[in-house]
Amino acid sequence: MPPQGDRPGPREGERTSSIAPRVFWPSAVVILGFVLFAVIGQKTAADAVATVQSEVIGNLSWFYMALVSLFVIFCLWVGIGRYGDIRLGKDGERPEFSVVSWLAMLFAAGMGIGLVFWGVAEPLNFFDAPRPGIGSSDAAKSEFAMVQTFLHWGIHPWAIYVVVGLAVAYSVHRKGRPVSIRWALEPVFGDRIKGVWGDVIDSVAVIGTLFGVATSLGFGVMQVASGMDFLGWVDDGGSKTLLVVLIVCITGVATLSVVTGIGKGIKWLSNANMGIAALIMLFVLIAGPTLYIANTLVQDTGGYLQNLLSLSFDTGAAHGEDGTSWVNAWTVFYWGWWISWAPFVGIFIARISRGRTVREFVCGVLLVPTLLTFVWFSIFGGTAVFQQATGKHDYVGEAGVSTNNALFEMLDTLPGGTFVAGVAILLIVLFFVTSSDSGSYVVDMLASGGDPNPPTWSRVFWALTEGAVAIALLLASGSGGTASLDTLKTVAILVALPFSFVMIGMCVATLRSFRQEREAYLAAKAKREQDRMVDEAVAALEEGLENGTLGAEGTSKTSTTKR
């Protein structure tokens, strides 16, 4: 790792003592401008964004399906292959965090809240309205519901995070660069990354991250309010006042957490999340259909592995417009959403992965969360699908499955489920806090020129900005509406298109850096071997001269020749 003095900095005048002006101010202006557009010109903004989304997802679904699958192949190749021993830090450096804390933080930041939100609802949605071509029997729909859910939450999204996280972690911890997206592309663009294009890349990452976290916060509090309404804690779960109060509370806790930093607030909350999630999961496993859960976990994991290749590249074309529309609405939408979150999650994972090898990084980020995800969905989603298929509980109303209430409905069917549902609300709030504080931390690092310990005032600024954006969009959407939030969510996903090309550049940059390091390692190894052989030869020569054996051998050979 280069010494601190060799670290290249931003251009002269680009960064003050606390922020990078060419990233901070353009990002803030764009965010403010678009939020005003979404609030004031709600219908116009929604129509414009929906049109663009339809064109992108409708015409480029093949691109997303192929690209994300290639990311999986790239990650497996890099992690398993000859580059796996490269350390993301100085040679011999130990990891900054324990394995448990590391996994808890990356899991909570990556998709912890999504698992709580969709753990029951997504398999039920797929069971109720499966992809065209799936059989009509409950058995066929049950297996499809779980396998398709595994696809959306398995190794594919985590491969997206690995691509960004690995490139950033190598540039930051191995090469000593600032914590920023732009520096991960230095092996491809060289010093040009210090200019305008680098500013644009970091600004896009800031905007996409803040939009994604703000919309998740807005939709998340709606689920919390829905759960409180379901449990009878409030009279009107759709009350704007209640939603605003929830956002203010979550943002306040997130602000305190991000101010204390990764080593304290974020780590403690992540560990608490994992503990509470494990207890709820254990409760559902024991109180629910335990044998069915065990059987469906094994069976559907096998189905996932058996069909992984075909599902990865399935665009739905074989079933006409209905098939492609279904895939676009779910799988392609998910791939765009995960890519839009990649700057945030990738940088955060990179920041906490100092000292790990490439193989540890890939296996830890790609495989461990995937296995935990399969267990989670098998327990929560498997229980709900079993109840729906056997008629023990009907989750499907006139408008389909209630995504916000599905988790609480399932818990309410179990003994003591009402109390556990209350604990689940706490879990949702804590997961949103960890998403908000880690998102604010990443945005702040980018807006501060890659400073791994950005100033406190800007941490507070971005944390409060996320909450303020979510509140403004909720209030602008009218009673019970989400129009402005939907618009911003769509924009966050549209950011995935340009950023997908940045990720392709990251793959090239990572391979180029790893190849250079491998060549340097082999050259150094060959030099050490050569030096060893020379040293051994010199030592043997010196020993021969000292013992007189070298001269004796020479005399013996001369006598033999004369004879």
TrEMBL record:
Family: Belongs to the BCCT transporter (TC 2.A.15) family.
The protein's name: BCCT family transporter
Principal subcellular localization: membrane
Pfam families, per database record: BCCT
Transmembrane segments: 23-41, 61-80, 100-121, 150-172, 200-222, 242-262, 274-294, 332-350, 362-386, 414-433, 460-479, 491-511
Subcellular location: Cell membrane
Membrane topology of this protein: Multi-pass membrane protein
Top-level taxon of origin: Bacteria
Organism: Streptomyces hazeniae
Record bears the keyword Chaperone: no
Alphabetically ordered keywords of this record: Cell membrane, Membrane, Transmembrane, Transmembrane helix, Transport
